[in-house]
Write a structure and sequence with these properties.
about 375 residues, alpha+beta, Butyryl-CoA Dehydrogenase, subunit A, domain 2, Butyryl-CoA Dehydrogenase, subunit A, domain 3, 3 domains, four-stranded mixed sheet, four-stranded antiparallel sheet, 11 helices, about 45% helix, binds flavin-adenine dinucleotide
Length: about 375
Amino acid sequence: MNFRFSDEEERFRAEVREFLSGYRDLDGFFGQDEKWPEVKAMFRGMGDRGWLALAWPKAFGGLERGAAYEYILWDEVAYARAARNPLSAGIVARTLIRHGTDAQRERWLPAIASGELHFSLGYSEPEAGSDLASLRTRAERTDDGYVIRGQKCWQSYAGKMDCLWLLARTGTQESRGAGTSLFVVGLSADGVEVKPLPTMDTHQLYEVMLDDVRVPEHHRVGPENGAWGIMGEALADERHIQFPPGRVRRDLEEMLAWLAAEGRDGDPVVRARLAELAVRVLETEMHGLRVLDAMQQGRDAAAAAAANKVVHTLVCQEIARAVLDLAGPEAIVHGSRPEMLWCQTMWETIGGGTSEVMRGVVAKAELGLSGRR
Ligand SMILES: Cc1cc2nc3c(=O)[nH]c(=O)nc-3n(C[C@H](O)[C@H](O)[C@H](O)COP(=O)(O)OP(=O)(O)OC[C@H]3O[C@@H](n4cnc5c(N)ncnc54)[C@H](O)[C@@H]3O)c2cc1C
């Protein structure tokens, strides 16, 4: 495995850092919803540089750079706490490039690449999270398209986004994943209601009610009942930019700064705990690079990405917990940085697939365990 980036890749990192220095105080990684106008302006700036289309083929307006460039970009953005990587430039764009019609690509890709058009992910439902194939939101065929009815929940940032990347049932309930299709649905369309779902940290989650929403046929992406394979491909394309280690490096640095400000960084007990955490942070870095390596070598990165998610999110919790343990009562004051980090790390082991489900992926792929006796 290669632990180093090329000189050219490192030059790109320096360029990204220079760009991000203008967004040092943005803090959109944790508060993207409330900072949306500023985060969107930053995405536009990235769009001007072609960075939202870094790895797309040139034929579709991309720069055709390798996976390492995307890894570096989103690692630095996470370290800067500027934003989380946008769904539109990832899953949505990659799927349109692979499976969209020419008209769909012409309509949506330029707006995504420029940072103008943004999507929320409409997969989960109240009774369909880990077991997504049991989803019930239904898209019924009409003469000129579909009528969609159902309820989605846990849609990140949906209150600020333009469109929903919607997974809906077009086949029978028994057909599970094989009876699902993907649609682009405007979040301000008639019959769509977006409601905030308050959480313990911020208000970044929403539920989306779809009440007889009319969607034209040309808003379906890929074949009818063909969503399942398409979704898997899109996910596989961007495993290297999920859960970048820069986030964890920054958590540790902030913790050190906090402890130093409290005058606790010389205490031997504190230093022993810090040493353990520094090793854990390096561990997350290795997991991140393992995912990138698998992608670059053309291997299936699913198990490496699942392991990365489990370790990354657990280390985030360990760091947040340590601040609460070591920094004294100020750390648990509502609204303090350590308290905010602690609350954030609660959900990160759930969103994007729970730790238990991720461990199941690793057990099957790397240990050959089937789960059946
Ligand atoms: C902050 C956040 C943001 C999110 N953003 C989005 C979004 O933008 N769009 C979207 O569509 N969804 C989003 N989600 C939903 C997320 O994908 C689901 O919450 C997640 O998949 C878990 O589903 P669930 O909540 O229904 O829990 P369940 O699937 O009901 O799980 C409940 C418990 O059972 C365990 N469990 C379930 N199945 C298994 C299994 N096979 N093996 C072992 N244990 C299992 C789980 O680990 C968990 O502990 C978000 C969630 C959160 C918390």
